């Protein structure tokens, strides 16, 4: 604490959190009722999502305004950075649950169903004709599917995301040197690459559903494939939206070489999403 | 400067950043003040404690006699399930978050929590989550009835159609906990007053720092587990279905990877509370401060590699059973360090027995008892006998009720004068303590015996030989439940008024929170205190 203790800006009371609480309530009730196939579910869900977007826009507008007014100190900047870092850590653990499910299924559940370890009787009595292989193309229950290769679209997507990480890094370096035109170009390029990734991912899903019979309910291979790539895709979408907002703010002349927390947070998030994809590419597609 | 210009300067300062509380409901809905939010958490937790307690009363009423008399078995299952969910996520965790909100900024000399608006959001999404959970009880088909652990396939193949609401309610609780935990960590790391170095942090702050880390690490895993339950039930996935290549046992692995750190999330802040109260009333410094910090960290790290001791009977490979048995037993070492440190703190202390100290001493004795039954359960071959019996119920109620809940009561009595500015009624509080202490042991101690004799948990009926003990247990339960109404009375009486409390309420107390007035001003430490 050598730098001393600065004045900490404690915001006045704010209506946004309670609006956000009501919005989440709507999303949860609406989401619940929708999957329960209740007729009113979708209406509540969309109302909740709408309110949530309204809240996010309003809350962030307020925060950006405060930041532009110079109310935030270096200490608050650290609070924001640390908050973002821990949020990303929580996201890592969320993906860890699904990667854990993938590894458990591959290393234990499927081999055991095939009679490995001390499960010879399980195999013999339950599904004697079941063969334990990965990818699991034929489930014990008799569903069959085809595997998604790693060449083609997945490989192209990997290259796209890797390049996007590099362009984002260039954008960030340019921001630190106050070369704003360079920032606009490279950040814009990053967002376009993210968008291209999402389009190709949709393409891949269509291919999986129509040509390969690889669906969400096609057994544990399809389950882990779609849950992992699906949640990753949602995170790419969110990351692209964050970067798009940052890009708009750059266009409006926000941020400086030393003060660009939102930029940095968005960049951290994007790199995190990239690392998740690399793990996905290795463990879901290649191996 | 003359005194009048000083006053004017002060007033201006006041104008600028000392916005006082707003009035009416807006104060509570829009607040960004850590003390307001702390109070909201604590009152919400008290309400949930009473609702969850009411469900426990239904369970004990049904179990008063063998046979089915009061409620139908499906409703009984809903009661055991929702009782557990409410007590874990609605009572104990929010109570500790409330204590953290109130005390952490004051203990480290910070003006508020690091992220005050997010703090408000973390609280206000909680009541909505429990509204969803409780509302599902009244819907056609009823609420969740698969136990708070929602094992697949009970929660997937065999659950009722309202399970989606349970899933989304748990999601919101998780979001709330994660945001609350991020706030606590950032506050502690970034907002300590000058001179408040790591090894000077009050232990309550230390234990909460580590708890917050555990929360951020495992709540997302719980979110993953409920998401898989949702897709298994509604979208045709088969994570927990062998026919699709999944495994119901995989659910238990994922759940308990969350679930075991979760039990430390509920007990580490309790350790912090006890480590604060025992030195105060022993009028001695805490014995072995550094070892307390290391012990807490060790417990937290070990908590990630013991989860499968909840699953000894699932047919794990032998190597797994042995590993998880020994890893679990290892936890008793740092925990023992803590218990010995508390006892050593009291040794040759000048002890007085105000109610917070009474609860703290009861905690040390009874939590240790719960720890011992935990050691018994850790022994794999023995666990094959104890598994899913009332012995387990006795074990975790000793650590959670006479452990976590007693520490929360101790904390509430300890800091109530600081919060309200009034002393609580010592006489009524003593009655509350002694009635609770006696009844809680009548309630939970005989559960060890019926459990060892083989009475299964979560079943609304039982064999005749357990009848006498169960009647006794139920009487203890009703008495314990009624005693808590006394706690409610003491709290609200204290809020309403009474004898004025001085700034330093307890003569042996140490820490920054005792250097500000009672009740603590709405804003504390907008200029940081010097910590030496």
TrEMBL record, chain A:
The keyword Transmembrane applies. Belongs to the cytochrome c oxidase subunit 3 family. Keywords: Membrane, Translocase, Transmembrane, Transmembrane helix. Residues 4-287 form the Heme-copper oxidase subunit III family profile domain. It is a multi-pass membrane protein. The lineage of its organism: Bacteria, Pseudomonadati, Pseudomonadota, Gammaproteobacteria, Alteromonadales. Its EC number is 7.1.1.9. It is found in: Cell membrane; Membrane. This is cytochrome-c oxidase. InterPro entries: Cyt_c/ubiquinol_Oxase_su3, Cyt_c_oxase_su3_dom, Cyt_c_oxidase-like_su3, Cyt_c_oxidase_su3-like_sf, Cyt_c_oxidase_su3_a-hlx. GO terms for molecular function: cytochrome-c oxidase activity. GO terms for cellular component: plasma membrane. PANTHER family: CYTOCHROME C OXIDASE SUBUNIT 3, CYTOCHROME C OXIDASE SUBUNIT III. It is an enzyme of class 7 (translocase). The chain crosses the membrane at residues 16-36, 43-64, 84-105, 150-171, 183-200, 220-248, 268-286. One of its GO terms (biological process) is aerobic electron transport chain.
Automatic annotation (TrEMBL), chain B:
The chain crosses the membrane at residues 40-61, 81-102, 123-146, 166-191, 203-230, 250-274, 286-310, 322-343, 355-379, 391-416, 428-449, 469-492. Residues 28-532 form the Cytochrome oxidase subunit I profile domain. Residues 11-20 have a biased composition (Basic and acidic residues). InterPro entries: Cyt_c_oxase-like_su1_dom, Cyt_c_oxase-like_su1_sf, Cyt_C_Oxase_1, Cyt_c_Oxase_su1_BS, Cyt_c_oxase_su1_dom, Cyt_c_oxidase_su1_bac. Residues 1-20 are annotated as: Disordered. It is found in: Cell membrane; Membrane. GO terms for biological process: electron transport coupled proton transport; oxidative phosphorylation; respiratory electron transport chain. GO terms for cellular component: plasma membrane; respiratory chain complex IV. It catalyses: 4 Fe(II)-[cytochrome c] + O2 + 8 H(+)(in) = 4 Fe(III)-[cytochrome c] + 2 H2O + 4 H(+)(out). Its EC number is 7.1.1.9. It is a multi-pass membrane protein. It holds the Pfam family COX1. One of its GO terms (molecular function) is metal ion binding. Its main location: membrane. Pathway: Energy metabolism; oxidative phosphorylation. Belongs to the heme-copper respiratory oxidase family. Cytochrome c oxidase is the component of the respiratory chain that catalyzes the reduction of oxygen to water. Subunits 1-3 form the functional core of the enzyme complex. CO I is the catalytic subunit of the enzyme. Electrons originating in cytochrome c are transferred via the copper A center of subunit 2 and heme A of subunit 1 to the bimetallic center formed by heme A3 and copper B. This is Cytochrome c oxidase subunit 1. It comes from Pseudoalteromonas rubra. The gene is ctaD.
